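Consider a protein example.
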Amino acid sequence: MSNKTILATCYAVNPFKGSEDGMGWNFVYQIARFNKVIAITRENNRDAIEKFMAQNPDPIYQNITYMYFDLPYWMRFWKKGGRGAMLYYTMWQKGIVSFIKKQNLKFDIAHNVNFHNDWTPSYLWKLNKPMVWGPIGHHPIIPAQYLKPYAASYLIKDRATWFVKKAFWNTSLSLKTTVKKANHIFCMNTGVEKMLNLKNKSFSIQPSVATEDFYHHDIPKKENFHLISVGRFVPLKGFDLTIFSFIQFLEGLSPEAKKECKLTLVGTGPEKAFYQKIIAEHQVEQYVEIIEWIDRKDLMKLYEKASVFLFPSHEGAGMVVAEALSFGLPVVCLNNEGPGEFINASCGIAVDQLDYEATIKGLSQALVKLQADKELLYKMSLDARKHFENNFTWNSRGEHLNAVYNKL
């Protein structure tokens, strides 16, 4: 079964979490389906990894060796949660090379799995083995019209971050060397190819997100019209567009039709009061519920009851899109480098990024279309499930990874 040994560096690995941490765990597991893997991660991930492996025995673990590496305390005492994570990550990436050399490890390919930034370098090419980099990507710049309802500080912060990214892309020699030395690059979306100028490189474009399959029945026809949206309450996720487009959609319905409509927002964050204010001002409290973070199993139950996933987010990724598709939920989103590239016309509607009012109108018209035509909604549900099976299962990621390794 195992024909190669892959050395994988994964800054974040936690099988109990979603997002970056969950992806780290799943990538290592997928590599181990076909090859031996030496996975190096941070010391603070050890307990979760060992606990999960003890609770969920699996023969595939025989192919996995976890090792733990952190920089000495004096190089990390200032890092608190997310604060300083970028700088620490860059130092960790540098430090890991000598750690690996000291261990005298035998391996065939080095793979830098995460952090997923395409603007911070990797140094694994110094190990003089074929190197795979990614999945990598970035959040695209948020179009200014979508930050209008928020404090000006968000626009300033978004533009400042973009300025820093551009400085790395344009001037970092280490980054240019990483691109040059990588034998294959996994890109999250088409934006990576443009920014890193990958014309003559071996690369593949594939969303970094995937999810386990929690859905095990046939997709039913939905009698109600329940919308769901999931994420942190920050401008990046576009919940203002979600709420306004739902309000506009409701305005066109008869009192009878309104009874079967509901919007569920799952999440919390700094903008919660702002969103509650919009809901109250438009007197739609009876149609909108906000549920703070819940256990993943309970979230799956909410997906199961819903009929459409409304997600006008501006990010470059979005694991929740993969989850929603797995439950056969058609996705209504923006036509952008993130969720807009995860779907196609058979399983979702991507609305063009126009001015603020026109975007809301486009989103609400997409909802009108799905609500008015139950047959179309059902057909798109079946196609959403198919699209998930073909593109967003972890196993499909594992097969793609293995094909790349075999080419090297």
About this structure: Residues 98 and 109 are 17 Å apart (CA to CA). The two ends are 18 Å apart (CA to CA).
